[in-house]
Write a structure and sequence with these properties.
This protein is an all-alpha fold. It has helices spanning 10-18, 22-47, 55-71. The longest helix has 26 residues, at 22-47.
């Protein structure tokens, strides 16, 4: 398989997008939104990644909070 890499400016891409039918613009917008959400989520998960929390630690904390709620 041959890979071809093309270099376009933002203005060139924008000009092409403006020529798309409305249906394809909406589809492209949804795909870009998904990619943006995925990137944001990956960044967020990386920021909060820790080895300090185990599944048992989380489970114990959840059970403690549940117990407090039940006691109210």
């Amino acid at each position: 398989m041959t890979t071809l890499q093309l270099n376009f400016t933002f203005e060139q891409v924008l000009s092409l997008v403006k020529q798309l039918p409305q249906k394809d613009k909406i589809k492209l917008g949804k795909e870009l939104e998904k990619e943006g959400i995925a990137n944001s989520l990956a960044t967020l998960l990386q920021e909060f990644q820790t080895d300090e929390l185990s599944f048992d630690t989380i489970t114990n904390e959840v059970e403690a909070v549940r117990q407090q709620l039940y006691e109210k």
